[in-house]
Amino acid sequence: MQGWWANLLQGALSAVIGGIVAAITAWAVVTATRRHERRAALEIEARTSAIEFFLLLADIDTQLTKALDNQATVPHITDSKEWTLKALKAEIAMFSLGQEVGNAFSQKIGDLRRALELAEGDNPPKEQLVTASLEALHACADHLAEWLMQGRHRSESTPTKAKL
Questions:
Q1: Domains parsed from the chain with CATH numbers
Q2: pLDDT tens for residues 111-124?
């Protein structure tokens, strides 16, 4: 009779321990999944912001090129609502991915803003200031493009800059 109660008690205890282990495992899986989903959502927001800012850079590139070609006045880009909104949105999104990513992007966007501020409003525009703005813009655009391409798998047969 003692063996019967011992087996029953051991089975009940094993079931309780198994239930606790299953609950802890389920909690860990749910927590990890939520953490991953949160990280994925932040990355999606950062990529969306980066693409929007990239399109703004293309528009600014057109304006600067026209200023060089036609001696047209460079408009006050850095004072515009569009610049402020898209630059801040992209910068905040990059910092949400981490200090290193945010700092690198912030440096590029700061360099571009300073270069644009020097070139804005001159009539006729000073060629060296517009050229410096274009160089800063291309550095920022290249940095953004490289970041957007991270994690994208390309086959070895795809030509790269080095092979071209």
A1: 43-149 (1.20.120)
A2: 999 999 999 987 78
